[in-house]
Structures are given as structure tokens and as C-alpha cells.
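Data availability (excerpt). The following record was deposited with the supplementary files.
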Amino acid sequence: MAKETKAQRTVGVGVEALWRVMTKDLASIMPKIMPDIVQSADVIEGDGGLGSVLLFKLGRDPLSKRQQTEKIVELDESQYRFALQVLEGPALTLREFSSLTTTFQLSAISEKETLVDMKVEYNTEKEETTMGEIAMQPVLSFVQLLEKLVLES
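Predicted structure:
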């Protein structure tokens, strides 16, 4: 049975700047904002737009074979709505998720402030009550790291 968890976060950067790093610059910024986790990120299918598949090579060791693939399943620039579905990798296997899709909805509050609505839809056989929190935690960290990157640039 599909489950979902939602969260909101207000960030101190403009919607356009956040949208750019979250969508257009995603492959190039992931190793910068998560150097201990993401070694490299490449678009392996598509042009970086809707339907594209990204390959994240994980770990600090260049010989590491750990990787994760994610597909852009929603990309609506006019609505600032973006979603990624994990196809394979540790985000699924380490937490025993059979599916995991994250949707971001950005809304401008002011010129330098954006509301980020996040929704994680997941399937798991585990009955733990904390699975929603476990699914959302990396998403919250990701948004926080993006905000920091934009503020520093």
C-alpha cells in the first residue's frame, strides 16, 4: 500500500535561483553539496528534462561501485513543480522501500524567500511508524543544502 509524508520549509532564497539549482543544475551540484555521499552525477538517459534518468555514483572511493538511479517524473517550470523517482539504489534497499518518489513544489513568498512543499510517496512492507520520517529526512537535508549553496554563490 502506498504511503506518503509531507513537509514544508521556508528558505531564504528566491524561487528562480532555487529552481535553477534544483532542476537545471542538479547533476553538477550534487557532488558539490554532498561530497561525502555523491561522487558524481550524470544524465544517462534523456536531455536532463522530463523523463531523464540520472546516475549518482556514491561514496568517496573512486573505485566504489555503489550507485543510485533516479528518473525525473515531473517537471513543470510554470508551476515550479519537480519530482524524482528512485529506480534503484541505497535509498530503496537500505530502508526496505519498494518505491520512493519525491515531489517538490516551490512557491515564491518574496523576492528572496521561497516556500518549499515536499511530498514523499513510498511503498514498504515494514510496519514501523517512523518510515515517513525516514523517507523525508534526506529530502529536508537536500533542500537545506541547496539553500546554503545559493546563499554562498
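Summary of structural features: The mean pLDDT is 91.
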